[in-house]
Amino acid sequence: MIDIQNVSKWYGSFQVLKHCSCQVRQGEVVVVCGPSGSGKSTLIKTVNGLESVQEGKIFVNGVEVTNPKTNLTKLRSHVGMVFQHFELFPHLSIRENLVLAQMKVLKRSREEATAKGLKLLDRVGLGKQADKFPGQLSGGQQQRVAIARALAMDPICMLFDEPTSALDPEMINEVLDVMVELAHEGMTMMVVTHEMGFAKNVADRVIFLEAGEILEDSPKDEFFSNPKSDRAKHFLSKIL
Ligand code: ADP
Ligand code: MG
């Protein structure tokens, strides 16, 4: 579903990604971890073309993201992305947040978009909040709305960039629970997170990135019981 082939990227003279290759197969959950500044956000954003690359190729479901002729708007419409900061439209109600892209991008009628949005809102446990505004919800609730909004687009895969790292501790689990459910339903997911409990629970593989290099790409049991690199060992010893 996601195929990253020998990707390198520079910001000016600073090389942020170094010959990165990895795949996420359909239905797989791959967790990406690594120290701050190692290039995790940059890597995940290359998947839907939010960051361009100077070398290498990236395919999503057979479509080449790195081909300048590819219609990125169309591609992004079915690659769900959830960021650290919830990025809901603050001046729109939850209901409007849920229907806007469905109507604009997928050309769904308001009725259809509303029905779909409300069903997903219910699914993330927020069925009663449709008429509120983002600022009236907690961080955890806003992030669940952001997930529902992404799901309303019928994504073929979901990208998460530290979806719980801006949340107060007591709200982390309500967001992770939604993600675990999605994983169990077979959603293809690439997840940047330091939540190693989530990784142990639902990841198929764990990728460890450092200084722009994929130092490890292992089945999760192997990653946790016997990380190959000393850097990954050190990283795990600090966060577990
Ligand atoms: P991570 O998500 O692992 O913390 P990032 O992908 O955000 O890492 O950043 C990797 C490195 O690239 C960092 O050193 C960061 O300062 C640098 N960086 C990120 N975005 C830019 C940018 N737009 N211009 C220049 N440097 C950047
Ligand atoms: Mg980041």
Could you explain the architecture of this structure?
Residues 2-236 form the ABC transporter domain. It is found in: Cell membrane. It is a peripheral membrane protein. Keywords: Amino-acid transport, ATP-binding, Cell membrane, Membrane, Nucleotide-binding, Transport. The protein is α/β, with parallel strands linked by helices and 240 residues long. A hairpin with a 2-residue loop joins strand 1 and strand 2. It is globular. The two termini are 30 Å apart. It has nine helices and ten strands. The mean pLDDT is 95. Strands 6-7-8-3-9-10 form a six-stranded mixed sheet, with helices on both faces. Strands 2-1-4-5 form a four-stranded antiparallel sheet, covered by helices on one side. Bound molecules: adenosine-5'-diphosphate and magnesium ion (MG). Adenosine-5'-diphosphate binds at residues 11, 16, 34, 36-42.
Summarize this entry quickly.
The protein has 240 residues and is an alpha/beta fold.
Q: Mean pLDDT, as a whole number?
A: 95
Quickly give the structural class.
alpha/beta
The small-molecule ligands in this entry are: adenosine-5'-diphosphate, magnesium ion
Uncertain parts: none
Order of helices and strands: EEEHEEHEHHHEHEHEEHH
Work out the number of β strands: 10
Number of helices: 9
Q: How much helical structure, as a percent, in the residues?
A: 25-40%
Major sheet: size, sense and barrel closure?
Answer: 6 strands, mixed
How much is the radius of gyration in Å? 18 Å
Question: Roughly what fraction of the amino acids lie in strands?
Answer: 25-35%
Question: What overall geometry do the principal axes of the alpha carbons give?
Answer: globular
Head-to-tail CA distance between termini: 30 Å
The neighbouring-strand order within the major sheet is 6-7-8-3-9-10
